[in-house]
Amino acid sequence: MAYTPTPWGYDVDGTLPPLITAEEFCAIKGESYASDERLEPAIAAASASIRNACGWHVAPSMPCMVTVDGEGNRNVFLPTNHITGVTSVAVGGTEATDYQWSRIGQVRLSRPLPCDLQAATVEYVAGYDEAPQDLMDAVASVVLHRIALSYGVVSETAGGVSMSYAQSAAYGGASPALVDSELAALAPYKVVRAHAS
């Protein structure tokens, strides 16, 4: 396997694709931006923002590997909240065979980890097969905001046609922060515990 480091403290086998495709974005938000050259970069940037807010890659399902420090406890909390399998656990370089795991990312060993840095390495499969619909909607919303802000538009009204422009419009726009509704949609996918305890 060719593992690639992620910003969330673990490695994935291969590279992470965006959370949605351009076709999925158009199915959610319409065809207005289908030929827009900014669409693919906006999808990649929105996927990164969403994943950073969640603290892990979320989708797709893929092999992962994490090395954790030991603090004398039996539990390891993986940086995920949706795993479908644990492939291997090695403690101090020795394969462990007596452990349990839960779907939300907890691995319980039969013995406590030694109080060492990089005490254990866990290989596992994590992530949804594809992004759940509410997550796809949140990504599409962020993409739409990014594209609109690149025009300098911060708000618009359909009836009576009213638009407001950002001061940064002359400088190419700005990247918006995630708004409350987008953050709320991410709540079920956020990592709650990502360290050994």
Explain what you see.
A hairpin with a 2-residue loop joins strand 5 and strand 6. This protein has helices at 22-29, 39-54, 133-150, 180-186, and strands at 3-5, 11-13, 62-68, 75-77, 83-91, 94-96, 99-101, 106-109, 120-126, 153-157, 162-165. The longest helix is centred in the last third of the chain and has 18 residues, at 133-150. Helix 2 packs across helix 3. The chain has 197 residues and is α+β, with helices and mostly antiparallel strands. Strands 1-2-3-9-5-6 form a six-stranded antiparallel beta sheet, with no helix packed on it. It contains four helices and eleven strands. Mean pLDDT is 86; it is low at 167-174. The radius of gyration is 20 Å and the shape is elongated.
Task: Please give a quick description of this structure.
With 197 residues, this protein is α+β, with helices and mostly antiparallel strands. Helix content is 25%, strand content 26%. The strands form three sheets. Strands 1-2-3-9-5-6 form a six-stranded antiparallel β-sheet, with no helix packed on it.
Question: Which features does this protein show?
Answer:
197 residues; alpha+beta; six-stranded antiparallel sheet; three-stranded antiparallel sheet; 4 helices; 11 strands; 25% helix; elongated
Shape: elongated
Strand content: 25-35%
> Helix and strand string, N-terminal first?
EEHHEEEEEEEHEEH
Give the overall pLDDT as a whole number. Answer: 86
Q: Residue share in helices?
A: 10-25%
Calculate the terminal CA-CA distance, rounded to whole Å: 28 Å
Q: Rg, please?
A: 20 Å
Low-pLDDT residue intervals, each spanning 5 or more residues = 167-174
Separate helix tally: 4
| Strand segment tally | 11
Largest sheet strand order: 1-2-3-9-5-6
Largest sheet: 6 strands, antiparallel
- Helix/strand/pairing category: alpha+beta
